[in-house]
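Re: beginner question about structure tokens

> Can someone show what the tokenized structure looks like for a real chain? I only ever see the sequence side.

Sure, here's an example I had lying around. Input first:
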Amino acid sequence: MHVAMIGTGYVGLVSGACFADFGHTVTCIDKDAGKIEQLRSGGIPIYEPGLEKLVADNVRAGRLFFDTDSREAIRGADAVFIGVGTPSRRGDGYADLSYVYAAAEEIAALVEGFTVVVTKSTVPVGTGDEIEAIFKRVNSKADVAVVSNPEFLREGAAIEDFKRPDRVVVGTTDERAQAVMRELYRPLYLNETPILFTARRTSELIKYAANAFLALKITYINEMADLCEAVGADVQQVARGIGLDGRIGGKFLNAGPGYGGSCFPKDTIALVRTARDAGAPVELVETTVKINDERKRAMARKVIKAMGGEVKGKTVGVLGLTFKPNTDDMRDAPALAIIPALTDKGAKVQAFDPEGHEARKLLTGVDFMDDPYAAATGADVLVIITEWDQFRALDLDRIKLLMNQPVLVDLRNIYKPEDMRARGFAYTSVGRAPV
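And the corresponding structure tokens:
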């Protein structure tokens, strides 16, 4: 089948490359000429493991193309996907749908023959109705079916998630559109992937409901971590104990400094706004947003406490800046709240992240180092914020010699307290007794 993908950001590029790898002919379209030229030259504007090779293989095979001109791709497409960004609107937290609506207008003016127009971007309930209205206004004769097909991609594991998903959700009652969507996802048949067909509004809500539930689960275990510290319990054993219950499951029960990234922060806030407007407030989600925001600031206080209550004039080494490992995404990363809170108290911060290049634009007063050992050199405390694999097997004896004093604050619990004690570290983690 022929697919046009509007947008070459995270969702659009990963989805387009994966559809091409399924055997479809895909043209990814973006108005950013520099980004298209980069992609045509073999460059990748985002960091995602395996994506560079996937794109190169499918370009070489003649299935994946990049263009700034959408006319030919849209006119020849069986399905046109909208994969543009929907960031939180500044000031009120609603999803900014301006890019989605602009893409819809562009598609409406160019589409020929029956075409399935698929919203891949995360959009509030009712957005598909608005897109239909745009088509009626711009091109009332267009023969289209507007479909919701939310993405459930984890940054750092997006290709695996696309090719081996838990489920595919498709929001449409149009039989022709269902046939097209089945054909697009037919390669997943061998994996016996469930394809859930729903009404469009239900599909739109599923994405928000899923992300809000996972954000709530993270926030819940973080609150349990605080309780564990207060009563002398171990949050990791608590998480395992409850996660073995099949009704709960062990995923997203890792205590830490709070959630961040491109999805959970904006999607929870957007859901709160949608629910309020509908007269059915989601108070659990509202509380989750509030607790998560406070938690990031609380992690800075944890560091200060580990330093005896004072960091002025002290050097803080930081390992990890991105919101999670295997991504370069800094959006709502806990580091963006923790580090300014420390520098405001007079600390000197020296940090390292394997892919945290964007952090240089977002954090001021920070010395960016070339490796974890440089970040530890001369530090009075070393703080692990992001659990990159290379931080899991540090030469701790070397770290201890490089630091002014062996104080380590592990906000991801990647080391064992008893091991750190044996090595002579003053060690603070999350939800476990300090040693």
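Each token stands for a local structural state, so reading them left to right follows the chain. The mean pLDDT is 96.
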